[in-house]
Amino acid sequence: MKLPVLFKEKMQRLLGDEYEAYLESYNNPKYQGIRINTMKVSDEEWKQINPFTELQPVPWCKEGYYYTEPNKPSKHPYYFAGLYYMQEPSAMAPGAYVPIKEGDKVLDLCAAPGGKTTQVLAKLNQTGVLISNDISASRTQALLKNVENFGARNTIITNETPERLASKLPGYFDKILIDAPCSGEGMFRKDEGAIKSWETHGVEHCQALQREILEYAYAMLKEEGMILYSTCTFSPEENEGMIQEFLNHHPLCEVVPLTPVGGIATGHPEWTKGGDASLKGALRLWPHHLQGEGHFVCLIQKKEPTLDLAKRQVIKKRIKDIPALSEFIETYTHIDRDTPVIEVKDKVFMAIEDAPDLQGLRIVRSGMLLGELKSKRFEPAHAPVLAYSKEMFKQTIDLAVDDVNVIKYLKGETLLVEAPKGYHVICVEGHPLGFVKSNNGTLKNQYPPHWRMMG
């Protein structure tokens, strides 16, 4: 791989005696990982059903595993059941280190395609409020699919600028994740396209974005709240230097030291002007020290008194107040009909307690989509099937993982399975995959066309 001369000169200055080892890391394989969805399967349960060979644990993420060829996790039915998420191992570090507690209000500010969001989801375990945002409208579609496949009920997805979010949500969040747009130096080994981007945009362009994002995040954070700032670059100006600049402007904030494991290194205060010694509490993931790409992770806590001034969403309806929806829920599920909901045009979403009023913002997902009202009938969405266990549904068809009907279902084909009239949930080894509708002896496949398995 041909690296830019200026980049090589910079890395040689930073790494000194380690520079040759860093260059040698470009000859190593590209590491691939999966992260188990603990909302659906425990570590012990996963060990019982794991269909893959030679999985090795990722040291900094207890739910993470390296996998190798010929394993193909993206083709396995368990992937479609949301039992795991596919993620580059180093990218698991930010989500692993942010100290989320059940009930927290969390913002993932640069969320697409959803790796860190799904880690936060598992930590919240269907409690609290998670707002996952991305400024790119096209990227929010991948985010939406990953959030729904993981089984989220407590998540709102927005497509907004940090500035507009901050205008609505001052002092609202306990934790904010910033996977900041950066020069991408840590991805050169994995993606040669990142080199072209580095040559085009450069460090200064990224610094301006990072500076702005941090300021708006600070405004949305509660007192004692935390920002987890991460990048996939080696540049000190975007890492320790950016945090140092932020601390200079906000002296009541402090770095919370993180414990390095599995080859992760500490931060380098000496690489920035007047570097605060606390920057050593940040983390650096170097590809010549561990099995993964380059990353930087830093946790900051706000000590300044802050008022939560965000308006709350007003909930006016419950499932039982919408006849067609109530009838469907009563007939096919054990979901509580007192569950609060909100209607957006003809779509019905499960409301999230203590969620903010986001009126006027671009909202992709107002909560979990239950389905759509069409004339006097209710048509269920795909999301609830993946957000609940098999036991929540009254009519299920459970298939073995090697049953040919599983792949047929995931490809959108008709199933030759006897079932009483009405909606049924297709499961694989007890894990829901999606709806079918039985009528006149045939099963109509309800698996979403844009989710279907190809090939």
TrEMBL record:
Active-site residues, record numbering mapped to chain: C232 (nucleophile)
Residues that bind S-adenosyl-L-methionine: C110, A111, A112, P113, G114, G115, K116, D134, D179
UniProt keyword terms in alphabetical order: Cytoplasm, Methyltransferase, RNA-binding, S-adenosyl-L-methionine, Transferase
GO molecular function (one): RNA methyltransferase activity
GO terms (BP aspect): RNA methylation; RNA processing
Boundaries of every SAM-dependent MTase RsmB/NOP-type domain copy: 22-303
NCBIfam families the UniProt entry points to: nop2p
Family of this protein: Belongs to the class I-like SAM-binding methyltransferase superfamily. RsmB/NOP family.
PANTHER family with a match to the protein in the record: 28S RRNA (CYTOSINE(4447)-C(5))-METHYLTRANSFERASE-RELATED (PTHR22807:SF30), NOP2 YEAST -RELATED NOL1/NOP2/FMU SUN DOMAIN-CONTAINING (PTHR22807)
The name this protein goes by in its record: RsmF rRNA methyltransferase first C-terminal domain-containing protein
Organism for this UniProt entry: Zhenhengia yiwuensis
Record lineage: Bacteria, Bacillati, Bacillota, Clostridia, Lachnospirales
